[in-house]
Specification:
heterodimer, A: alpha+beta, Aldehyde Oxidoreductase, domain 4, 3 domains, 16 helices, B: DNA polymerase, domain 1, 2 domains, five-stranded mixed sheet, 6 helices, 5 strands
Chain lengths: ~725, ~150
């Protein structure tokens, strides 16, 4: 599936191949009256219009608090032109999607794409339904199509004999479902919206204030048992043996099941080698698993620690790294073709005195998702069908993984969507549903698998660490003429160490980016604004250091270095005009700025901090200036901006995984610490500064990356000290 | 052994080990799944319930310690999802993923029953035991003030 290849014709072809099919998926109460729905018609796979003029909108993306279950219905209601109160969200049927040529194009929920990348499909579904309704009405009334108006759930026309006649969408739904259009309508442009662009409260909020929202951990089936699982505490290691006899008489214990890894390296195409204990209650399974003697072959990871990785990084960063080239042989993806990377070493060697800037080494550690809901899944595997509920950000992928695990066709595998207790990328690399399916298949009963928090953090696909430095030569105007950056990542996903630095927006005529990678056995995954989150910390402090060395105000430097790039200029100008910007607050206080782009959105942060004489950092104020092109729901945009801000503020002040003897050692909230209410800033200010210019950025992640560097820059102006790593709690101020 | 728990005014009788954590009794035996498992070591507050007026972490409270006491879970905060704390949460769209919010609401209800008009620092202290990974702290703080205001009128 390629977004850029999307055409309305493709959409039509896909949507007309799917008549019938099994609807599973729960109906959820929303703002619409919860009365019985009779008759009506499925106009296309995305929406069903009922006789009572209510509309069910299918949401193929996952709801994890980011607003998909509201955004998708909004986009369809906009085009359909139906009162918002009449719209209900329903879960997508993953089985129908997988077995009908990817009916919903994709069910993946990540990269802040639900609105930014998916809106053409969803809005098309609404527009196509609206036009079919108009055709149905024109046909029944015997009037010309252009004389039929579809508005707010009503079709109307002025008939030559009968005068004004009208009917509800619901009255025409069944006929509309049979209409074939010669050509699909175009979707609305910005400016023609009546619903999009308004503050709409998320539909899932009320369910989340009385405990009634259902997460996979809440699914209960008759005769269901509970399982606790453990994979090798040193990732890549293997189970050698376990002694079930030692625990089989413990209260409630039913069985132990070996979790067999069939591939050499699991790499998210298999579950990891491990063992499960099944019991009547989860706490009994957990206690018995903890007590069971287990022998592991730890593998190569046992000799790796975060200290050894750091030492290796220090060694690598002192040597030249690999020059980053894109597929066309150009320096850095997306960089100007005119940039010269060969001249950089000579220019830097020739620079002397205050024209040479040599950066110190910056770093960020491993971080973990630690979603409040630990990984969990319920599986009921029978001879003729398998039913599954799991922690996933891609229902189709997880369904296929269960089919793969069971060695079955996808036809009789049913994955039922639920709410997720957080995602942040964690839901892409889960194998808990493989484990649940394997256990249920083995014991012949429905089973609920829940990870302990220790198992979650110990086995998560982590955010990778990065170490980075730079050297620059400045020209007579104090601006850099040459810059070499060298970032060290880890071996599994070294590309994360290049994002936002290899292709940064600051225009420097001579530019190199080099990378190296340390050995690592730790699984790596997507972690809210991957790459940008860690790299932005380094690039945006480097920007401040270069500005300072050249005698420039850091905000003016950023404006100068991105001249002509409107999306950033808009954000930087707003930061300058609206934040009360100054680098001279005095009295142990400082303001710092940073700007990072991720997911097609440009987010600037201005942080104001106070540092006490004892070195305690207090974040007084965080101001964000965000350009995502368009915003369909400013309320939801602000919620997500606040959330991402706290996400990265958490990792600025807390967090940081430690690894010893190959295993993560801080695996619960007593040692992997989180920001809590008393630590959170009193106020987060969100300014939406949208270009409104035919591009769509995502908003689930972009305010995170500029946060730690803005705070670090503010700390510098408050104290004169640079904090070059996180968590700041370890910094000496 | 046979255990009877009084949850939200109703007696639930079941067989269990007296050391069974209250959380799992509430979820598995009483079937009330609004109370969540987050860490298992009394660090995150997702499992908070109110026992005799105090917010208590159910994940490390043995059922034996809760016998004979009035236990209130998220399901018992109101019949119609209209306790001032719930209404304030809805008005300010506090929950995102929502998983921690049962525990947050329980802590807020317990706080307001004890301190009807709390200051920011009183809120910070009372809510420090509840982690929210979505980072909704600013909205929670504002919603507690709003709930306090709503209760006055």
């Amino acid at each position: 599936m390629n977004d850029l290849n999307f055409t309305r014709r493709n959409f039509l072809r896909i949507s007309t191949t799917v008549a019938g099919g099994l609807m599973i998926g729960l109906h959820l109460p929303t703002m619409a009256a919860a009365e019985a729905h009779g008759g009506g018609g499925e106009i296309n796979a995305w929406l069903t219009i009922h006789a009572d003029n209510t509309v069910d909108v299918v949401t193929p993306q996952t709801e994890m608090g980011q607003g998909a279950f509201t955004a998708v219905p909004m986009m369809i209601a906009e085009e359909l032109d139906i009162p918002w109160e009449n719209v209900r969200h329903v879960y997508a049927d993953a089985n129908r999607h997988v077995n009908n040529a990817d009916l919903y194009t994709t069910t993946s929920t990540g990269g802040s794409t639900t609105v930014s990348r998916r809106h053409p499909y969803m809005m098309q579904a609404g527009a196509s339904a609206r036009e079919r309704l108009r055709v149905a009405a024109a046909t029944r009334w015997g009037v010309a199509l252009e004389d039929v108006v579809a508005k707010q759930g009503f079709l109307s026309t002025t008939h030559v004999e009968q005068g004004v006649i009208q009917g509800t969408y619901g009255e025409f739904a069944a006929e509309a479902a049979a209409v074939t259009l010669a050509e699909e309508p175009a979707i609305k442009a910005y400016g023609d919206w009546w619903l999009l662009g308004q503050d709409i409260k998320r539909l899932d909020v009320p369910l989340k204030t009385n405990g009634s929202a259902t997460y996979p951990i809440d699914v209960t089936l008759p005769d269901m048992v509970h399982a606790a699982v453990q994979s090798c505490p040193v990732p890549e290691g293997r189970l050698v043996s376990y002694d079930f006899d030692a625990i089989k008489d413990m209260p409630g214990v039913i069985a132990a099941v070996e979790l067999i890894q069939t591939k050499d390296v699991a790499a998210f195409t298999d579950m990891r080698s491990g063992v499960a204990v099944v019991a009547e209650s989860w706490y009994q399974a957990k206690n018995a698993l903890s007590a069971m003697p287990v022998v592991w072959d730890n593998g190569r990871g046992a000799s790796i620690s975060f200290a050894s990785q750091t030492a290796e990084a220090m060694s690598l960063i002192a040597q030249p790294g690999t020059l980053v080239l894109d597929v066309d042989g150009n320096l850095g993806k997306g960089m100007d073709k005119g940039v010269n990377h060969d001249a950089v070493p000579g220019l830097i060697a020739a620079a002397t005195g205050d024209k040479l800037v040599v950066g110190d080494i910056y770093s960020r550690p491993f971080e973990t998702h630690a979603t409040m809901m630990p990984p969990c899944a319920v599986a009921d595997v029978k001879a003729d069908r398998a039913d599954i509920w799991t922690f996933t950000q891609d229902i189709a992928r997880s369904l296929s993984e269960v089919a793969d695990q069971l060695g079955r066709d996808t036809t009789n595998v049913f994955l039922h969507q639920t709410y997720l207790g957080g995602g942040f990328g964690a839901g892409y690399n889960m194998f808990v549903h493989r484990q649940a399916a394997a256990i249920s298949s083995e014991i012949g009963r429905p089973v609920k698998v829940i990870y302990s928090r220790e198992e979650d953090i110990g086995q998560d696909a982590q955010r990778p660490p990065v170490w980075g430095t730079y050297k620059a030569a400045l020209g007579d105007d104090g601006l850099p003429v040459a810059l070499v950056t060298h970032f060290v990542g880890e071996e599994k996903l070294p590309a994360f160490s290049q994002r936002g630095v290899a292709n940064m927006h600051y225009k420097i005529p001579n530019r190199r980016h080099e990378y190296s990678a340390v050995q690592s056995h730790i699984p790596i995954g997507y972690h809210r604004a991957p790459g940008a989150n860690s790299n932005g910390f380094i690039v945006e402090q480097m920007a401040d250091e270069l500005a300072q060395a050249g005698g420039w105000d850091p905000l003016e430097w950023r404006l100068k270095m991105t001249e002509g790039f409107e999306p950033w200029q808009r954000v930087l100008t707003a930061m300058k005009e609206k934040s009360g910007w100054t680098t001279d607050l005095g009295d142990g206080r400082g303001m710092g700025c940073a700007i990072v782009d991720s997911h097609g959105t440009f987010a600037g942060c201005v942080a104001t901090v106070e540092v006490s004489r004892r070195g305690e950092i207090f974040v007084e104020r965080l101001q964000y200036f965000i350009n995502s092109g368009y915003v369909i729901n400013p309320l939801n945009a602000r919620e997500q901006a606040e959330s991402s801000a706290i996400w990265e503020l958490t990792h600025a002040f807390f967090g940081g995984l430690d690894i010893r003897d190959g295993r993560i050692v801080n695996t619960n909230f007593d040692s992997y610490t989180m920001m809590r209410m008393p630590d959170s800033p009193p106020e987060i200010e969100i300014h939406l500064e949208n270009s409104e210019d035919q591009w769509w950025g995502g908003l689930g992640e972009p305010t995170g990356p500029p946060t730690p560097p803005a705070v670090a820059n503010a700390i510098f102006y408050a104290t004169g000290t640079r904090v070059r790593t996180t968590p700041f709690s370890k910094a000496e101020l | 052994m046979s255990i009877t728990l009084n949850i939200n005014g109703q007696d639930h009788e079941f067989d269990a080990d007296p050391q069974m954590p209250l959380l799992w009794a509430i979820r598995e035996k009483a079937g009330l799944t609004g109370t969540k498992f987050g860490c298992g070591i009394a660090q995150c507050g997702a499992c908070n319930v109110i026992i005799d007026g105090n917010a208590v972490r159910s994940c490390n409270t043995p059922v034996a310690a809760a016998v004979g006491k009035a236990i209130r879970t998220i399901e018992g905060v109101s019949e119609a999802n209209d306790h001032p704390v719930q209404l304030a949460w809805q008005e300010l769209t506090v929950p995102q993923c929502g998983y921690c919010q049962s525990g947050q609401i329980i802590s807020a209800v317990a706080l307001l029953e004890r301190t009807p008009d709390p200051s920011d620092s009183e809120i910070d202290r009372a809510m420090a035991g509840n982690i929210c990974r979505c980072g909704t702290y600013t909205r929670i703080r504002a919603a507690i003030h709003k709930a306090a205001d709503m209760s006055k009128t």
